[in-house]
Amino acid sequence: MIKMTLKKVSLVYYFLVLFMVLGCATEQQQKPNRPNIIYILADDLGYGDLKYYNNNSKIKTPHLDRLARQGMSFMDMHSTSSVCTPTRYSILTGEYAWRTQLKKGVLWSYGPLMIPDQKETVAKLLQRNDYQTAVVGKWHLGLDWQLKPNYREDQVIRRAPGMVTDHSEEIIDFSKNPTKGPRDVGFDYSYILPASLDIPPYVYLENEKFTQPVNDYSDGSNLDGDKDYDFWRPGPMAEGFDFYEVLPTFIQKAKAYINQATQKEAPFFLYLPLAAPHTPWVPKEKHRSKSAAGMYGEFVQMVDEQVGQLLEHLDAKGITDQTLVVFTSDNGPYWKPHHIDEFGHRAAANLRGMKGDIYEAGHRVPFIVKWPGKVASNSKSNQINSLANFYATVSDLLGVPSNARDSFSLFDELTGATVNAVRQPIVHHSKQGHFALRYGDWKLIEKRGSGGFTPPAFMAAPPGASEARIFNLKNDPSEKNDLAKEYPNQLEIMKLKLDSIRRPN
Q1: In 92-155, which ranges are E strands?
Q2: What is the DSSP string of 430-446?
Q3: Of 97, 139, 185, 498, which has fewest CB within 10 angstroms of its CB?
Q4: Buried-exposed string 311-345: b where 16+ CB fall within 10 A, e elsewhere
Q5: Where in the sequence of the chain do the CATH 3.30.1120.10 domains occur?
C-alpha cells in the first residue's frame, strides 16, 4: 500500500515537472523576437555628410551608405536639442531635457550625474526584460566625482538655484573613483570618456573606475584657432592618453563587449556614443589627405571605416540577423560658413544654420535602422520624428507599456504595420534655450536669432513684426520665408501647441 502510494506520488510529481518544463518552453516560444540592439550615436555628424542623404557630399561614406541601403532611412528625424548633453538625456529617458534644470547649453566635465536615481531609462527597461546592457563611448551626462576636503564655495559653479552643475577641476580628487555613473542608470558595463574629446579630464573610466592614473596634464591644442580642426582645451589627463586613438579604442571595446555578451543566452543592448567627428578633428595618418572636405571630412571617413569594422564583426560572429542596429547623430555639424567657402562641402546639405542653432541644420540628423527580416531594405520614412522616440519604440518591441512622456513608438513604422503614422508635434531646443515647434509641414521659431553659434544668436523683431516666426518646410526647407504675417491663425495655433507641451503636468 505504501509502495503504491509512493509510486502514485512519484508519478504525479513527474507529470507536474513535465508540465512545468513544457509550459516554460511554450512560454519562451511565445515571447516576441527580442533582438540584440546596438545604438551608434555619432557626435556632430551632419545631415548632409552621408552620400546616401546628400549626393553632393564631398565625403566618402561607403559603409554607412550600405547600412542605409540595408535598412530604413529617416529623412525628417531630429535630435531633441542642437547640442549634445540634452539629446543624450532624451535618448535614454524619452523626455525633453528642458523639463529638467538644464534649460540651455550642456554639462561640462565635473557636474553630477544628470539622470536621477528614480528616473526610468531605456537601459533600466531592458535590464528588467532580461537584456545585458552596456555603454561604450562618450558619456557627457555627468558623474558624481569625489571632492577634495575643505574646498571653497566659490569653487562650486551653479547655473540654477540649488543645482550644482559643475565644480572647479582643482577640487576634484582624481585619486578616488566617481561614486555614480552609468551603472546607476541601468548599464551593467561601461567604458566611457567623461565628456567631449575637447573637454578635460582626458581619461577613460571602466565601470566608474579610472583605467589609468590621472597624473598628467595637457596644455591644450590650437587654442587660438577658433576651436576648429585639432582643438582641445587644457586640463588633467591620464598617463598615455592619445587623442588619435579614442575612436578606434571605443570600437575595439565594443567588439570585445559583443564577444563577451554573445557567450550568454540573453540578448544585449549596446549604447555606443562615439566622440567623433566632434572636435578635435583627429583622423589617423591613413585617412590624411583622403577627403575633399579637409580634416573634418577625413575624420568622418574614419568614423565610416570604424563603424564598418563593427558591422563586419557582427557578420563574423554570425549575429547580424539577430541584431537591430541604429545609426544617428546627437545634433547637427560644427561646420561654419567659412568651412563651406573653403571646401565647397555642405555638411547640412541645403539646411539653414549649424550645430547649436534652432534652425534645421542644428537638429535634423541622419537616422538609419537595420533589422534583417523585420525592417525592409532600402526603405525610407518621410515622417517627422525625434530621437526621444527610441524609448517608446523599445517598449513596443518588448510588448510593455511606455511611461516616457515625450516618446512615441516607431515600431509599427519600422516593421511596415503602418505607413501613414500620425506623428505628434515635436519640440526643438537650441544651445541658448530657444524653442521651436514642428507640426506637419509647419515650423514655429519662438524667438528671433539662431539661438546658437550662427550670428546673431539673439535679435529683436522689426517694428510691428511678431517675435515668433513660422515657416512651411515643405515649400521652404531652408527657412528663408517667414510666413507669420500671411498666416496669423497658423502662428497662433502653433504657439498654443508649444505652450500645451511645455505646460507642467
Answers
A1: 132-138
A2: -TT--EEEEETTEEEE-
A3: 498
A4: bebbeebebbebbbbbbbbbbbbbbbeebeeebeb
A5: 429-502
Query: Exposed, middle or buried by CB within 10 Å (0-12, 13-18, 19+), for 489?
Result: exposed
| Cα–Cα distance, 150 to 395 (Å, whole number) | 46
Given a contact cutoff of 8 angstroms between Cβ atoms, the answer to whether 372 and 333 are in contact is no
The distance from CA 176 to its chain's CA centroid, rounded to whole angstroms, is 29
The pair phi, psi for residue 481, each rounded to 5°, is -115, 105
So what's the pLDDT on residue 163? 55
Look at residue 473 in the predicted model and tell me its pLDDT: 97
Sign of torsion over alpha carbons 353, 358, 79, 192:
positive
Question: pLDDT grade, residue 166 (50/70/90)?
Answer: confident
Tally of CA atoms within 13 A in the half-sphere of 64 that contains its CB: 31
Residue 281 has which C-alpha cell? 578633428
Burial of 25 (C-beta count, 10 Å sphere; 0-12/13-18/19+): exposed
8 A C-beta contact, residue 443 and residue 471: yes
Give CA–CA dist 32/44, Å, rounded: 35
In the chain, which segments carry CATH 3.40.720.10?
32-420
Fold of 32-420: Alkaline Phosphatase, subunit A (3.40.720)
495, burial (CB in 10 Å: exposed 0-12, middle 13-18, buried 19+):
middle
The dotted CATH code for 429-502 is: 3.30.1120.10
CA 313 to chain centre: 22
Q: H helices of 385-487, where?
A: 390-398, 411-415
Which residue reads 538655484 in cell numbers? 161
C-alpha 425/C-alpha 502 separation (Å) is 12
- 3-class secondary structure per residue, 18-78: HHHHHHHHHHHHHCCCCCEEEEEEECCCCCCCCCCCCCCCCCCCHHHHHHHHHCEEEEEEE
- Return the closest-CA partner of residue 38 out of 400, 313, 248: 313
Please work out, in degrees rounded to the nearest 5, the angle formed at the alpha carbon of residue 161 by the alpha carbons of 155 and 163: 65
Q: Model confidence over 317-373: pLDDT tens digits?
A: 999 999 999 999 999 999 999 999 999 999 999 999 999 999 999 999 999 999 999
